[in-house]
Amino acid sequence: MNTHILSKSSFLKGIQCEKHLYLYKYHPELQDQLTELQKAVFNRGHEVGKLARELFPNGIDASPKTHFDYSGALKLTDKLITDKENVIYEAAFQSDDVLVASDIVVRDGEKWKIYEVKSSTSISEVYLLDAAVQYYVISKCGIEISDFSIIYINNGYVRKSELELDRFLKIESVLELIQKEQADIENEIQRLKKVLAGKKIPEIDIGEYCTHPYTCSFFGTCWKHVPENSVFEISGMHLFKKFELYNAGIIKIDDVSDKMPLSRNQRLQVDTFKSGKTVINKGAIKEFSNTLSYPMYFLDFESFQPAVPLYDNSSPYQQIPFQYSLYFQETAGGELRHFEYLAEAGVDPRIGFINSLLKDIDEQGDIIVYNQAYEIARLKELARDFPEYSERLETVILRIKDIMIPFQKKYYYSPMMKGSYSIKNVLPALISELDYTNLSITDGVTASLAFEKLQRETDMFRVNEIRNQLLEYCKLDTLAMVRIYQKFKEVIDYS
Description:
β10 and β11 form a beta hairpin. The chain is of the alpha/beta class. The mean pLDDT is about 95. It folds into 3 domains: about 5-195, Lambda Exonuclease, Chain A; about 225-265, no CATH class; about 285-495, 2-Layer Sandwich (Nucleotidyltransferase, domain 5), CATH 3.30.420. The chain has helices at about 10-15, 20-25, 35-55, 70-80, 125-140, 165-170, 175-180, 180-195, 220, 240-245, 265-275, 280-290, 350-360, 370-385, 390-400, 405-410, 425-430, 445-455, 460-495, and strands at about 5, 60, 85-95, 100-110, 110-115, 145-155, 170-175, 280, 295-305, 320-330, 335-340, 365-370, 400, 410-415. The radius of gyration is 27 Å and the shape is globular. The chain contains 19 helices and 14 strands.
């Protein structure tokens, strides 16, 4: 088994925070569990990486047989280079006790072109660091590099029929940029080696680097001393300001003085937390409620964002609506009727979504949503991509009313909302018997990821299970709006 002190990934962790590197190397058992979103990002990168290989076909894969044993990959890479193989995938190189693996390596005469594949739509500083450390190690191995490029997603690409890889993916040389960084890379490698040679975990307190450029995988370990209801929960406050308070010993919201300069909403959050009292502007709620009229539709959408566009007239990471839940009430106190749509996997869900929605919504009545910017944006995209429906979709847009406004404007504020007007914070504060905690799907992100899973799922039992979970979640979102409106009426009636 090969031995190395640093890898490309551990180098980047060390650049973010020395403690992150040390814990990753010597105390991996303390890492937080991966979230579903983090797993999805990893899978997305793997998917885009496989597609990028098709731009350079017939390569040899030098990936290690097991994740932690790169000795075979190093030997195979060396042999393939000696044998003048034209294309190598996951080529492994080691020098100066640093191990790197390059996504795609292509022969260019006696030199080599290196390609690093990313599933994002732009090149970040972290990606340049990633490329720079690869260049450093590969060059130290005696390999001449003629060019180094990053392959990433072209977010301006619109799919028409078959996926066009040469248009979906961009290739951009970063050679000159990373060559300028080589002296710094060497210095950083030596610094991080000294960190790992230490006998104790570096004494580094929490800071902005805990979440930038990525959330540290030891966040739970390093932040466990931060209590619930800390200053980090103050809404709308810049992170650097929160750390100013923390470093001054002001850690809990209770520690925030009455004289501390805060915005109006921040002061409301702090004061109501201390008093435990809910603030209700009954006049403003009544005025808002009077803008709503029956018949009423309570509507919620769910969408997903595939990195690789799956359908005609769609772009990378475009929000594709696949589900809605709709409650209808014709008159005050009248029967609540429920309608819903959930697309089947494997087909473009948008036409079915449009047709079902237009069938379920009559031409009269207010359409109540929570955060209208989201639903309106999706409807406008559908009108753009399917112009034959644009006129009818525009009439739907004109009827939308946003029930989030009273919470956004703090007409109704409870300390349980913790400064947020997200429906996930609002609902338990208003209607305690309704909450998302017992659901398998608890927010829009996990709903999106669940539908993405359905595109690959072949077990029909699992398919039905996920579909039922999606229906249950989306239905609660719309029921929440119904109950919120009822709560407003109670507030008005008892005023």
